[in-house]
């Protein structure tokens, strides 16, 4: 029955090895062994049909699932691969066996086995194209480095899971330190599952194998004391991992031990005594030397063993070389009477480096013309020695040397030159000096509200859907102020948009005017002093602050508008209040307003009196009051509150049904349109723009009444 089902299966007919004569021969020789293999093949075919391989899977799981897709491999080769994958401890010998089997396969088959991650990894070494699978040396290097990387990633995942449960990790380490003099058996009994559950530790993440590792490493740390290199070598031999991964595992345990006892486990003791110095060299000079040595019966493998460095990776990737190995290579060159000497490249100083700013549209046009001829962006970046893709994406400046090379290339291929209209010379490290005016005061306050300063750029994050008009206003404001088109980054999730302007000189110039780089909450930012000196600067500064961190509220009991400003920085809230006081606008004291979503606290200032609200809106003219959908939201609320009590109840009940959470009833574009349509249906008349404007203006009107008239 088993043979019949398998022979009728259409998936297995595609395989070359599948033949009735071969099965009958194998059946006569090894009946039991063949039955086991066929049963395994049947299970794998079912897995192949139902499974969907994802990028998040481990490389071993991907091999198990995708192994049956490949017809190039025999049954014996597949069984060898399965045995290697099933091993708990994966050694270097197993890796060599696996590579010797996989090296026969084509590039398409390797991508089927490992997925997209292998293609992305291999693209770093060489340009992907035809005939790549014929170069066996290069394929061996790529497979070896890929499998090493995957082993390191598995170890890092373990370390991240330990970082999540840091408190549990500290408890276990402290128990081991107390009972370190006892034997390993007694320690494992103390740290058994039942005892760990009583302490409230997650036993899934801290199993027997991990606890044994911790005991072994902590005992080694106490024995070796401050000799870190020997400790790393011991962990490397014990668990068959690379030196980098072993160092990562040891240093994480040392950090935990330092938090328990900082005197005994001082991290300054465990620093590397002799760090390895690496130097960057010119690969073209190295190739010339290797070609001359090849004529003298020197192969690349012999040279790499002699030097102690992998020359193939240095040539293909342009990696740095050890200083010791470079000295050995130069001595060997002298022995063979070769006059060339390889010297390390000196780092170029950035102090007097001149940069060129090219018009983005012109640069795109140049790249298009060069692409039509046959030069790709990768070829252009190699010739000019700077990344053209990042310059185009981020509107960056390029060095003067690369600009000259680009101009020469453009003249050679297209017989054109870049005219002076489209580029400007600029020193990157020079600071831009800004004049103190109304526009600068508004910009500084926008950045204090919804902006951020970085080492390279300034960023402003806004709501592109609910505050569409304000996004246009800020975009035009930045364009006029800096004479640059801001780059835009739209958030994939949510309603956010980022407006970015790059320039180190711009950032340094804004720092001179009182702004700070980094997190605003940690720095506890406030408004610069020069803004508070002039009334015009105060008005433009208040406009920038209110448009970003301010809101227009509606007091439904009195049917009037209120203004509120909230910030994470207490100093910024206090400076907003002080600026309002200078304009004779009364505001409340700074109060706390805790967030329900998180544990963070915001500081709030309220302007509630009608007189002060009207004065603020006339003097400062915030852009929030001119937004179309915000006016609809405020006007419709004021209109239906003036209607009869029965209609007000019906409207409120309907809103609660459709939007049960109070956070959903706050201003948004969708909610304001819903509110207008619903009120028009219940009230029985159309709400026009004139009615909305009238209702908002009436809510700001107030009448003074003397005490005598009230008494009468």
Describe this structure in words.
Helix 3 (20-29) packs across helix 4, helix 10 runs parallel beside helix 16 (243-260) and helix 33 runs antiparallel to helix 34. 19% of the residues are buried. The strands form 4 sheets. A 4-stranded antiparallel β-sheet has the order 6-7-9-8. Strands 10-11-13-12 form a 4-stranded antiparallel β-sheet. It is built from 36 helices and 13 strands. The chain has 712 residues and is an alpha+beta fold. The model is unreliable at 1-20, 29-56, 127-133, 161-165 and 707-712 (pLDDT under 50). The chain is extended, with a radius of gyration of 36 Å. Among the domains are: 2-151, no CATH class; 165-260, no CATH class; 278-335, 434 Repressor (Amino-terminal Domain) (Orthogonal Bundle); 354-427; 627-712, no CATH class.
Q: What's the rounded overall pLDDT mean?
A: 77
Q: What percentage of the residues does DSSP assign to strands (E)?
A: 5-15%
Count of DSSP-assigned helices = 36
Question: Roughly how much helix do the residues carry, as a percent range?
Answer: 55-70%
Q: Rg to the nearest angstrom? A: 36 Å
Structural class: alpha+beta
Strand order of the largest sheet: 6-7-9-8
Could you describe the largest sheet, including whether it forms a barrel? 4 strands, antiparallel
Cα shape: extended
